[in-house]
TrEMBL record:
One GO MF term: chromatin binding
Protein name as catalogued: Cohesin subunit SA
Assembly: Part of the cohesin complex which is composed of a heterodimer between a SMC1 protein (SMC1A or SMC1B) and SMC3, which are attached via their hinge domain, and RAD21 which link them at their heads, and one STAG protein.
Function: Component of cohesin complex, a complex required for the cohesion of sister chromatids after DNA replication. The cohesin complex apparently forms a large proteinaceous ring within which sister chromatids can be trapped. At anaphase, the complex is cleaved and dissociates from chromatin, allowing sister chromatids to segregate.
Lineage: Eukaryota, Metazoa, Chordata, Craniata, Vertebrata
Organism, scientific name: Cyprinus carpio carpio
Keyword Cell cycle annotated: yes
Length: 1240
């Protein structure tokens, strides 16, 4: 038994008693029979103080055929492991041979191997190895560490480093395995390696700490394997000894008994040696590093302790070690939590270990259950899988509440989580079968074994109360319960057959749920991809999956082609059941109807569909019938003619009936009969539903529907539903005509007719926008937006110039009506849309909001596609803050799209929306409003949000921001104060709002905007300091401040693309970005050329520039700045302004460039000289408090078993496990000065 935690934390390895290695070879003896023959020899020679085992002397050694001179380590070992091309065992064998020849040189080679694997360029020389302590060596290596890059082999990317970690770990494992019979017991090699790795693991340098921790943990794993083999050999030896001793005295071999006793003693001694090594690693490395500040290091520790517990459960699988895994399940990083769960899965998978896990399970079960809702999906998946293993081991561990918390995850949108939850659900509810069921002959239908399991699925679906998510439930269980879910014969039997004696029949609600589940299973089998919202899209199926898909489609067609007519006949009056059943033919293999001689069943199906159409008026049912006809009317199959005839007969009857009823209905005048209105509506519903999927152009439905709509406008008393369906039907007529014209086979008269009908219908919809009925107005608005988008200038794109006569541009009056509709029906409070008290229900409120969102999205598409003027979006954008929760995503996306189309026009629209809000506030509060009022603060906050939407790349938005400031300044000075020039303009406070966009200006643009601002100012304005002038003062200050910040903002667009950026592991290079001169000058030229070629900022020559152009604005007091400005005569100002404006941008750019270069030139080397140190671990108290928050660990307060070591190593070097000795006072002091962020 390993007594790890009982040893002292300070280990002292022999310094004066190092042994001289004998000539014994490290022979391979798996049976352990001659393991320690030469061990006595290995302990003979002693060296004096100060000597470190010089072995064969100081002469040059050889390693892998390469000379090593003057104690300098050859890089061959690191290179071989890095390339990973050589067999690792041969590499280790070469090192062992070198060790036997001169162990100091070989050990120095190994030490430098670990140093190089950490990414350090330093080399440990033979002189350093002989005369310096480990702490001094590590400190020396820390000073020589390459800090140009934060990367090191374990974190480097690229093909050459791809397999480094695996090769590194393999080398350590092979090294211990090859040395396990003698070298690891020489009290020299392992002592030195463990001491080095322990010291490195306490280093402040992440690379040292990470690499050494990985090496130490893999070394520990290899030692655990050795200890396990020793334990097995000891057990075998003990059994042999007991068997020999129990023999009769005459048959007992005393020599064999003595040999077995000696062998057991030697095995015990080696077991103690290994335990000492493992305890040293555990106490010196694991106990500190499992709570390291770096998540990767913590994950390594947890992963390896899981390996130890699984490999050597007798020694490690106890609460003393399990508690570390339990505590770390509260880690803040998902990577570490994931390692905890995977480690536990390996333990729970073995049922023989369940007894040792009982206390841990009872203590940490709640935490595991809560991790099923982890924010990291990978962690949640593994937590569910772990609970499935716990459930598999014992049904009594998890309570009903625990299981229910996992059950609902089958409806998760993340498929791996849902599949894992589906497997848990299957194990809990579906995997338990009666033994009698397996012994009885296999039956079909409702008498089959799956009947009860299908009922269980139905009951679970109903109890979950998520009735619209059957597809998610089926998809979750598809991988583990496909056999049950595809037992369609059993489902049909449960629906059609009479229940057996003593069997309880399904209720109506259960039958509805079963039909829905059955439909979802058929869709899943036919489409082979997850439902909408779960998955990234359709994936490419493998050959095996394609074959399964074809087999399932054939089988489902053969089954339901016969059963579907009977199911429709039984449930023909139930709209919900019929709607689901009518979707089944969409997934059929229609060829089966012919090859399987099933035409009579097809006729029966068509009769049932016709009866359902004549019987129902529900829109969902009628649309399902229309889609079914559309699926069956496929010209590729021979059944097309049969189905087409049935469809034509049905539609002829319905259209004739509609025309006849409509003529009578319109003749009745203002008092139509309710029965006649119902008949007209029912027939119109059927025709509209079919017109959605079928071309009914030959029946000329436009004339009758237009007459109906025109009568509704004239009389004003047309029933709401009739108007809505007439609008929809006419809309379908237009779209089918357009499809026919787009094919290019129609006549010119057809296009003219379509153009006439389309414009007349748009005018009709515009007239219905003023209807008193809200539902009618919404329908007219939606159709109108669709038509305007379809028949916009986009219609001629893609080589369809022939359709240009159909382009329709809305007039200004129509655009205004559409905008007013949005403002009146979308941007309203929830309470205003009460609709006769029906909105009190939460579900109806959500539905109403969804409808309003669709209306807003329809209008925003008109803005995006330039169908209506972009400035109409100002009325939409100004609602961004007030209705953020309801429509924020739609408005934000609209702003983004409009900016992509025209940045400048979008900026003008944004500032226009702010101006509109400002004018509304003035009309409500008056010109003397309080700037601290909620209305003004709301506008200012909206401006801040608008500013954030421009992003960080100021080069892309440069002109747009300049135009925005130009319009804002003009608006602020637009309305003079009627009280005289001594009073501020009425809109001056708008500058306070405009200042929110100042941070988006580049430095040279700030000066340009400031110059443009001075054009509108008078001499008296510059001297004013009253509160009413504060907006002007603050806006001017925002244009004059922020030199350093502007330096960064100017290069944001360049440095992000052109400069070399240090990797994510490197130190942040804040304030060090470089601006290439070529790019800076070219960008300046671009800005200047744009100024000359377009009217964007319209910063006209200003006389104010002559006194301020060569100065830093922020260094001037207002009195100094403007006294020089306004002392010039108008003639002098006019003469000077022309030359000043011409050179303004070039001077600003050169002035900024010199400042930027001077700033970049200072402080660079000082930053680069930062020592690469960081916080090694989290605070012990804070970390444990975080882990144990809200938890009581009394049950885990377990003392570790006492040590069984036969020898205690008391003469170890004092600094091996003392972190304080790794770094001197100067390095430790810099650590607390804020340098702990290196590579965090």
């Amino acid at each position: 038994m390993i007594a790890a935690p009982e040893l002292q934390s300070e280990f002292h390895y022999p310094q004066d008693t190092d042994t001289r290695f004998s000539s014994d070879t490290d022979f391979d003896d798996p049976d352990g029979r001659n393991v320690f023959v030469g061990k006595g020899k290995a302990k003979k020679g002693k060296k004096g103080p100060g000597e470190k085992g010089k072995g064969a002397g100081k002469g040059p050694g050889r390693m892998n055929g390469h000379h090593q001179e003057n104690g300098m380590e050859n890089v061959m070992l690191f290179e071989v492991v890095r390339l990973g091309k050589s067999a690792m065992q041969s590499v280790v064998d070469d090192w062992i041979e070198s060790y036997k020849h001169d162990r100091d040189v070989a050990l120095l080679d190994l030490i430098n191997f670990f140093i190089q694997c950490s990414g350090c360029k330093g080399v440990v020389t033979g002189e350093m190895f002989r005369n310096m302590q480990n702490s001094e060596i590590i400190r020396k290596m820390t000073e020589e560490f390459d800090e140009d890059s934060g990367d090191y082999p374990l974190t480097m990317a690229g093909p050459q480093w791809k397999k480094f970690k695996s090769s590194f770990c393999e080398f350590i494992g092979v090294l211990v395995r090859q040395c396990q019979y003698s070298i690891i017991y020489d009290e020299y090699m392992m002592d030195t390696v463990i001491s080095l790795l322990t010291g490195l693991s306490d280093s402040q340098v992440r690379a040292f700490r990470h690499t050494s921790t990985l090496a130490a943990m893999k070394l520990m794993t290899a030692l655990v394997n050795v200890a396990l083999n020793l334990s097995i050999n000891m057990d075998n030896t003990q059994r042999q000894y007991e068997a020999e001793r129990n023999k009769m005295i005459g048959k007992r071999a005393n020599d064999r008994l003595e040999l077995l006793l000696q062998k057991r003693k030697e095995l015990q001694e080696n077991q103690d040696e290994i335990e000492n090594m493992m305890n040293a690693i555990f106490k010196g490395v694991f106990v500190h590093r499992y709570r390291d500040a770096i998540a990767e290091i913590r994950a390594i520790c947890i992963e390896e302790i899981g390996v130890w517990m699984k490999m050597y459960s007798d020694a490690f699988l106890n609460d003393s070690y399990l508690k570390y895994v339990g505590w770390t399940m509260h880690d803040k990083q998902g990577e570490v939590r994931l390692k905890c769960l995977t480690a536990l899965q390996g333990l729970y998978y073995n049922r023989e270990l369940n007894a040792k896990l009982e206390l841990f399970t009872s203590r940490f079960k709640d935490r595991i259950v809560s991790m099923t809702l982890d924010k990291e999906y990978d962690v949640a998946v593994q937590a569910i899988k772990l609970l499935t293993l716990v459930l598999h081991s014992s049904d009594e561990v998890l309570t009903a509440e625990d299981c229910e918390s996992v059950y609902h995850l089958v409806y998760s949108a993340h498929r791996p989580v849902a599949v894992a939850a589906g497997e848990f659900l299957f194990k809990k509810l579906f995997s338990h079968r009666d033994p009698e069921d397996d012994s009885m002959p296999k039956r079909r239908g409702r008498q089959s074994v799956n009947a009860n399991l299908i009922k269980t699925a139905v009951f679970f679906f109903l109890e979950s109360e998520l009735h619209e998510h059957a597809a998610y439930l089926v998809d979750s269980m598809w991988d583990c319960a496909a056999e049950i879910l595809k037992d369609w014969e059993c489902m049909i039997s449960l629906l059609l057959d009479e229940p057996l004696p003593g069997e309880e029949a399904l209720t109506d609600r259960q039958e509805t749920a079963l039909i829905e589940i059955m439909l979802c299973t058929i869709r899943q089998a036919a489409e082979c991809h997850p439902p909408v919202g779960r998955g990234t899209g359709k994936r490419v199926l493998t050959a095996k999956e394609k074959k399964t898909q074809l087999d399932d489609r054939t089988r489902m067609t053969e089954i339901f082609a016969i059963a579907l007519p009977a199911l429709l006949a039984k449930y023909s009056v139930d709209a919900e059941k019929v709607t689901n059943l009518l979707q089944l033919p969409q997934f059929f293999d229609l060829e089966i109807y012919t090859t399987g001689r099933l035409e009579k069943h097809l006729d029966s199906l068509l009769r049932q569909i016709r009866e359902i159409v004549e019987k129902h008026t529900d829109t969902d049912v009628l649309e399902a019938c229309s889609k079914t006809y559309h699926a069956l009317c496929n010209e590729e199959f021979t059944i097309f003619n049969r189905v087409d005839i049935a469809r034509s007969q049905l539609l002829d009857e319905q259209v004739d009936k509609f025309n006849r009823l409509l003529e009578d209905f319109l003749q009745e005048g203002e008092d139509p009969d309710e029965d006649d209105a119902y008949q007209v509506l029912s027939t119109l519903k059927r025709i509209t539903a079919f017109h959605n999927a079928h071309d009914l152009s030959k029946w000329d439905l436009f004339t009758s529907n237009y007459k109906l709509l025109n009568t509704g406008i004239e009389n004003g008393d047309m029933p709401e539903q009739i108007v809505i369906h007439a609008l929809q039907c006419t809309h379908y007529v237009i779209l089918w005509s357009l499809a026919k014209v787009s094919e290019g086979t129609s006549k010119k008269e057809d296009m003219l007719t379509l153009r006439k009908q389309m414009r007349a219908f748009c005018l009709m919809c515009q007239r219905y926008l003023t209807s008193v009925n809200t539902a009618v107005k919404e329908q007219a608005f939606t159709i109108l937006c669709d038509l305007l988008l379809i028949f916009s200038h986009q219609i001629i794109s893609g080589g369809r110039e022939a359709l240009e006569p159909l382009v329709y541009t809305p007039e200004a009056s129509l655009q205004s009506e559409l905008l007013n509709f949005i403002l009146d029906h979308v941007f309203i409070d929830q309470d205003e849309d009460s609709n006769n008290g029906q909105q009190d229900d939460e579900a109806s409120k959500i539905e109403a909001l969804h409808k309003r969102r669709n209306l807003l999205a329809a209008y925003c598409k008109l803005i995006i596609y330039n169908v209506v003027e972009m400035n109409t979006g100002a009325d939409i954008f100004k609602q961004y803050m007030r209705y953020y929760n309801d429509y924020g995503d739609i408005i934000k996306e609209t702003m983004s799209k409009t900016r992509q189309i025209d940045k400048i026009q979008c900026a003008k629209t944004l500032i226009l929306s702010l101006q509109q809000l400002f004018n509304e506030m003035l009309s409500d509060l008056g010109p003397s409003f309080d700037r601290s009022s909620s209305a003004f603060c709301g506008i200012k906050e909206l401006a801040r949000r608008f500013s954030l939407t421009f992003g960080l790349d100021q080069l892309k938005t440069r002109e747009a921001i300049a135009m925005l400031h130009k319009d804002g300044i003009e608006f602020a000075f637009k309305e003079p104060n009627p009280q005289g020039e001594g009073h501020p303009p009425l809109n001056l406070a708008f500058l306070d709002i405009l200042s929110e966009f100042s941070s988006k200006l580049m430095r040279q643009d700030k000066r340009t905007v400031h110059t443009y601002l001075e054009r509108f100012m008078t001499f008296q304005m510059a001297l004013q300091r009253e509160d009413c002038w504060l907006p002007l003062i603050s806006y001017r200050n925002s244009l004059q401040a922020g030199g350093d910040d502007d330096t960064m903002s100017v290069v944001s667009g360049i440095s992000s693309r052109g400069s070399s950026v240090r990797s994510k592991k490197a130190k942040p290079a804040t304030g060090k970005r470089k601006l290439p001169e070529e790019e800076s000058s070219s960008s300046s030229d671009i800005w200047m050329s744009r100024e000359q070629s377009m009217q964007t900022p319209v910063m006209m020559p200003s006389p104010h520039l002559t006194s301020t152009i060569m100065r830093e604005p922020k260094r001037l007091r207002p009195e100094e700045s403007y006294m020089g400005v306004y002392t010039m005569t108008p003639d002098q100002q006019q003469q000077c302004s022309l030359n000043a404006h011409k050179n303004m941008f070039l001077q600003i750019w050169c002035h900024w460039s010199s400042d930027a270069c001077s700033r970049r030139g200072t402080g660079l080397m000082e930053d680069d000289e930062e020592p690469i140190v960081e916080d090694v671990m989290m605070s012990s108290e804070g970390r444990i408090e975080d882990l144990n928050e809200g938890m009581d660990f009394d049950t885990m307060d377990i003392d570790l078993p006492p040590s069984k070591n036969r020898r205690e190593r008391s003469e170890l070097k004092p600094d091996f496990f003392d972190p304080a000795s790794i770094m001197d006072e100067s390095v430790r002091s810099t650590h607390f000065l804020g340098y702990d962020a290196f590579q965090r």
